[in-house]
Amino acid sequence: MKNEKLEVKNLVFNYGMKNILNGISFDVPKGEFIAIVGKSGAGKSTLLRCLNLLNKPNSGEINISGENIINFNKKKLKMIRREIAFIFQDYNVLDNLYTVENVLTPYLVKKSIAGLFLGYTKEEYEEGVGYLKQVGLEEEAFKKSKYLSGGQKQRVAIAKALAQDPKLLLADEPVSSLDEKNTTLIMDTFKKLNEQNGITVLINLHDVNLAKKYSTRILGLKDGKVLFYKDSDKVTKDEFDELYN
Question: Rounded distance, CA 227 to CA 96, Å?
Answer without folding.
Answer: 43
